[in-house]
Design brief:
The chain is mostly helical. 65% of the residues lie in helices and 0% in strands. Helix 1 crosses helix 4 and helix 2 runs parallel beside helix 4.
Length: 103
């Protein structure tokens, strides 16, 4: 995953909705808003990790039509793997997201 210093800073400073806005260049779909709001309020991971998950997901699927449940499935995979630090989340981004969604 191609993260630069600026994107890492955004992960640490922005709210999940602000990150979604930045990743989609303001072209947010209704289902994206629902998914991000529903999962981010659960607070099962810190915002910086959630934001990195958004980057990871949107790098692969941002310009395509995707199954509306896919983001939630990847989110739950990270929760089950107990990703609680930013460095753990960075390691998770090395996994091919399509392999996660095959399961």
């Amino acid at each position: 995953m191609g993260l630069n210093d600026e994107l890492i800073r955004y992960c640490k400073e922005l709210t999940p909705m602000e990150m979604l806005y930045r990743l989609t260049k303001g072209n947010i779909k209704g289902l994206d808003i629902i998914a991000v709001k529903n999962l981010s309020v659960k607070k099962r991971m810190p915002d910086d990790i959630f934001n990195l998950l958004l980057c990871y997901f949107y790098e692969e699927f941002g310009s395509t039509v995707y199954n509306r449940n896919d983001f939630g499935r990847v989110y739950l995979y990270w929760v089950r793997k107990k990703v609680i630090t930013f460095s753990q989340a960075m390691e998770m981004t090395k996994i091919d997201i399509k392999e996660i969604l095959k399961r």
